[in-house]
Design brief:
Strand content: 5-15%
Distance between the termini: 23 Å
Strand order of the largest sheet: 1-2-3
Helix content: 40-55%
CATH topology: Rossmann fold
Number of strands: 3
Order of helices and strands: HHEHEHEH
Oligomer: single chain
Amino acid sequence: MHIANMHNNTTSVAFYDTLGPDAARFICMQTELATIGCTADQVEKILKLKEDDPEGKMAKVTNIIVFESSIDKNVLALADTVGISITTMDECIEVGKQNFASWKP
């Protein structure tokens, strides 16, 4: 993922479980982060960070790419509530394959 980011002139930002909610929100605000890639067990935590964000520090976060193939329906409902689109890595790969198939050098 980091190499793809490099080729697209985007920056990777690391999040760690040891960061508290205030630090995570600050990082999202400071970097103007729009998309987060994570494992399924982290999605709900991120959604709650945005849901409980009275200062709007996570306002630009609108996308989550999940590395697993499936997401719990309750998590998807919460994502809709807070205005975040969730996409699986498999879906991203399929879009890439379709775009590559129609690409002509």
